[in-house]
Batch of 2 targets.
Target 1
Amino acid sequence: MAAGTCGTQTCSKSTPCCVSGYCNSNAMYCMPINCEPQNSYSTSSCWNTAHCVKDSLDFGSSNAFAQIADYNGDPSTAAFVSEYQPSNADISNSELELTLVKQSSGAGFGATVINTRAIQYGTVSTVMRSGCLSGGVVSSFIIRNNDIGDEIDFEFVGADKLTVQSNYYWHDELDYTKMVKSPQISDTTTNYHTYAVNWTPDSITWSVDGNAFRTVNRADTWDSSVNAYKYPDSEAYISYSIWDGGSGAQGTSEWAGGAIQWGEGPFTAG
């Protein structure tokens, strides 16, 4: 079935997938997290969505991670892929590492690594340390649907190395007042902790090292003004990222801890 135009062009059979006005045939364009079926060569040009399976992942295994340029669309060959090129994500000593680097403009360019399978409900946990050695550096562990704007997250900021922040969003309504910090834990930049989300149709629970510190019940998210529960319930993707919050808008910069002090790096989450 023919689809629409991709920006000012029409995608061809050899470059069938549309993203933001451009056509190509590689993973960056054809993965369902990015691909626009209504604007591609046909509505079936985008790769099919692979769904979550019960798994325990070791990033030292050969099928754990691939650069997005090398990914062929088969999730059994790579559980996670880098979302951008150039990529500042790689495997080192059997560990996934995401690095924030300084650009010539003075701002940082980080990394995002995303799961190749979508999830809708379940328990997701990770053992990690943040890369937030300076104010301005933000690390995250997120479950998000980019199309709809539903999100469940853990976020780390350089302004506070002794807690992790939890939040959730519905349809991209950025209500930061719902953020809740964990109780104080040991330095998140030098110590590995286990961060977990238990997501069900009725509730979301965040925990650190097996200790639950927050639960949101769907029943408590009802908003009569829109006749809906403002509760993230759409199929989404797990991702890790590190990024420069210090060079963002004033509110974001203040939350992240101000401008990055580059001499305190390197900034690597793992």
Target 2
Amino acid sequence: MPLWTIYHSDSIFKDDSTTVPLADAITKLHVREIGFPAFYVVTIFVPVKSGKLLVGGRNPEKPFVRISIDQIALKMAEDLKAYKKWTTKIDEMLEPHIAAKGYDSEYHINETEKMLWKVNGTYAPPFGSVEEKKWIKANRVLPREVPYDQIVGNVHGAASRSKL
């Protein structure tokens, strides 16, 4: 599950006309580039009032967007080319929603152990597995076909099969 928490000046991203297109773009990026089911992607918009979002100890002159991305369902290989490729795709996806509108921004990516993540109280199937493909087709959590003790040895799935 990628979780995108988007902290932003309260003067922007005020309604569905601006939040939904960005959330859709984020979801499409993860579905298209990685192959995740759409329901794995969660986007939260957090407006921050003037005086409560400070950059360098000051109110920013322009609207500011600070994004925290938690990648949980799949870890990236420690590879500079893969990092650059992924962050370039993120930059390209964000551009029309942030930079093109004159907003300043910053983001970072955290990666969490997959076995510390559950969806509706269920561990997700391994990446690229037949069971995960069923979840993708249904676009929702399905009852697990593989018991927990058989998951433990394959928590990260086939990370090398990721498109990144």
